[in-house]
Amino acid sequence: MRHKPFALGALVAALALLSACGASGEYSENGSGGYAGESPSAPPRSGGDSGDAAGPGGVGSPEPGQGSPSPSPGQLTAGDWDDNLNFSFFQKYLTEAPQGMPAHPSTDRVVITVRDEEGRPVPNARVTVGDAAGKRLEAPTATDGRLLFLPTQDGAQGSASFSVTVSPPPGQPGTAVTTSVEGSAWNLTLPGARGELPTELDVAFVVDATGSMGDEINYLKAELQNIVDSVRGTYPDVSARFALVMYRDDGDEYVVRSFDFTSDVAVFRQRLSEQSAGGGGDYPEAMERGLGAIHQLTWRTGNTARLTFLVADAPTHTQHYQAFVREANRARLSGIKVYPVAASGVADEAEYLMRLAAQLTLGRYIFLTNDSGIGDPHAEPHIPCYQVQLLKHLLVRAIGSELAGRRLPASGTEILRSVGSPAQDGSCTRADGTVTYL
C-alpha cells in the first residue's frame, strides 16, 4: 500500500456518543496466501508497506509508543456527497465506471418512506415487498423512515406490480398495513405507530490496518477524548455503543480482527491502543471481508440508529468486487447505513465501490481533502459540488443526523471552502444547467 494522510483521524467523532459500560467480544480471521497483481489504476507507491506512513514527522516517523508526539485533534478536512439525493448524476457516474467494475442496476430504484399518522418518520418499521412470484425484500426503515427497494437487484425480473406490508417497529403498537404500490416513491402511513427518534446508537468502525495506517491509528487515539466530551454533552440520553473491525489481507498476520460493541469508553480505548498497522503488500486489500465482519457483531434491533464508518484507501481484489457489493447489500437488508471514508490513496475503483455501498444503504460518501496540508495529495472525487469542513465536525453531524432522523447541514462557521458554488438552499447549478444538491 501507499503512504497516505491520517485517514482515520477524526473518525472518532462517532465514538463521542459512547457512555456507561457494555459487553465486549472479539474474534479474528487468519488467512494464508495472497493475490497477485495490482489494480490497473493503483496510484504510485511512495514507500514500502511496513507501517512507515508519512505524517507530520515525514516518512519513517516513529510509531506510537516510539517517541512520536500525539497529533493534535481537529485538523483533518473532508467533504461528503449523497448519491441518492443526486440520483440522475449517480446514474451517469455509473456509466463512466472504470472497466471491470461490477454492474449496479439501480435505475428502477424505489424510495420507500414510512410515517405515522402525524407525518413523522417511523424508524425500524419492518417493510416486506412482494410480487406475484413471492417476497422480494424484507428490511427495516432507517431513522428517517426510508428504505430503498431495487427491483432488478432484488430479483423482481421486470415485474411492475408489487404489494408492500409494513409492520410496527419492535415493541410498538400499531397495525400492519398491506397495500398495492406503484411508481418510484412509496409514501406509506402506519396507523397506531409512533415516529420516535432513536434512543440507542450502534456505531461500527471498519478500518484498513495495513502498513501505512500507523499514523491514522495514532491520530484516532488523539482525537478520542476531545470528541467524546463534545458529543457526550449533545446527546446525554442516547445509549451509545461502539465496535471496531480491523482488516488487512490474505497472507498477513490476520485478515479480520473484530471487537464487539461496548459502551465503555475505557474498554474501547484499550482495544484501540493495542492495534498496530502492518502487512498489505499489493494495492488491493480484503475490504469485502472487513465489511462482511459487521454482520457478526451484536447489533441492537430496537429503537436503534445503526451505522458503519468504512475507512479505506484501496479497493478489494478484483475477484471479490461482487462479494463486496453483496456485503453492502446485506447491510441494507439489516438496516445498517454505511458511510465510507476515503483516504488519499483512493483511486477510481475504490471510489466506485465505496459509493455503491453508501448509495445502497442510504449513507453518504465521505472523502478527505488537501486543505489540512496533512499527508499525500488527495484525488478529487467525481462529483461537482461539496463543502470542505473538519472531518470531526462532519462525522459528528453524520451521527447527529441519524439520531435526528434528518440531515443536519453544516453551519456557516464550519465551512472552510466550497466547490461548485452551492446556493443558500444547498443547490448547485452546473455549467450545463443541471442541478445537484449538497
Automatic annotation (TrEMBL):
Residues 202-399 form the VWFA domain. InterPro entries: CarboxyPept-like_regulatory, HMCN1-like_VWA, Ig-like_fold, Thr-specific_kinase-like, VWF_A, vWFA_dom_sf. Residues 1-25 form the signal peptide. Keywords: Secreted, Signal. Its main location: secreted. Residues 24-81, 419-438 are annotated as: Disordered. Residues 48-60 have a biased composition (Gly residues). It is found in: Secreted. Pfam families: VWA_4. This is von Willebrand factor type A domain-containing protein.
